[in-house]
Amino acid sequence: MREALLPAADKVVAEDLEEIRSVRSFLRHAAEENRRLWSLAGPAIFTSVAQYSLGAITQVFAGHLTTLELDAFSTENNVIAGLALGITLGMGSALETLCGQAYGAKQLHMLGVYLQRSWIILNAMSVLMLPLYLFATPILRFFHQDAEIATLAGKLALYMIPQLFAYACNFPIQKFLQAQSKVMAMAVVSAAAVVLHVALSWLLVGPMGMGLVGLAIALNVTWWFTVLGQFAYILMGYCPGAWNGFDWLAFSDLVGFARLSLGSAIMICLELWFYMFLIVIVGNLGNAQVAVAAVSICMNLFGWQIMVFFGFNAAISVRVSNELGAGRPRAAKFAIAVVLMSSVAIGLAFFVLVLALRDVYGAPFTESPEVVRAVASLGLVFAFSLLLNSVQPVLSGVAVGAGWQWLVAYINLGCYYLVGIPVGYLIAFPLHGGVKGMWGGMLTGVGMQTVILVAITLRTNWDKEASEASSRILKWGGSAALKPDH
Questions:
Q1: Residue 266 · residue 47 · CB < 8 Å
Q2: Which ranges in 413-481 belong to alpha helices (H)?
Q3: pLDDT, tens digit, for every residue of 444-453?
Q4: What's the domain of life for this entry (predicted)?
């Protein structure tokens, strides 16, 4: 019965995959799968890059104030807001598994309930995270951050509290739309948000002379514009069957849903915070302001590249969860192979580009020649970071689509925090490797995690994963999953 509901094109793919017997047949199916992936990944990449650009554009404006203000914004954006973003994005990513598999199984009524449950859980978590913003200065000082940077970053954090709750509302909406392949709507709203943000930032910092406070206001307004724009799209009826209005079922079965949300949060937070620790530890090196500025600029550019692969992450998560929910394991496995080939090719292109432009890519972010030279000195380790991280987000997307969040959380904990950070610290301080030593050492953790995820993906029994998809929906979805669609 479920197969009878599938689109004809999907039926053909599922059947044809069993008939791949030659290179020519493989290439034909790979081209078709690439078309499917890019129809998802293209708008998702644009959305990720556009939303990341909000912080990056703000950093460019801050960099043309003073080095101290650049450092303060970079620290708040990467450490304080980075902690909040990791938790909210991670917990919202539970919807990628549940909504994706429910959509593949044609149980559309569950998507709206899941969205509302995620809002409840994420906004409650945001309230719990308020002390992080209220006491940002003593928290940064506890980690031995430079006193001037910590004080100014703490003041800025107070202005950024509205952004925290925008995160809590935005990421569940995005996962809800992604599961239904409604990625173009997200891209349009994000494009409008970028235009609004540039105009507001220029107005508040330039003619009005409001400095960092103006940048904070612009960020808050733009993030809430994004949230309301996407929600307006849903309310206008473009998600029939998936959104049926607010439902009291959203307040039931929260424990099972929260469990998966927590696993998603831990998995993604351990990844995002890994690089946050790089900035915090670098703040303890000599000439801290220049070192933090150089690493922050590299991390800004690194974030742009990661946003590209977050687009692949979203696309492969949707493809895997939809195919497993629909009982098509061969299609899920084939999609993984195709997206990995594409992501590695793009990673190699970024690697070459960074090495070729290592002496100039820091200039747009600062007027300090010393900082530009420090950025150039990190070119090689930065390029290897981009190459390794062309694969890792894609594999994480596979994990989310399949519902392996807790497994990957344990892997991240071991590779990043028991191996990567200790090795980096050893090279940076006792062995006097400085910033390059710290970053290079931490890459050992990234490499180890990538190898383990590749091995797990290759050894997975995808037929078994498909058979377990419906039980996952019941386990983590609760009583709403028992209601059939008509």
A1: no
A2: 421-428, 434-459, 462-477
A3: 888 888 888 8
A4: Eukaryota
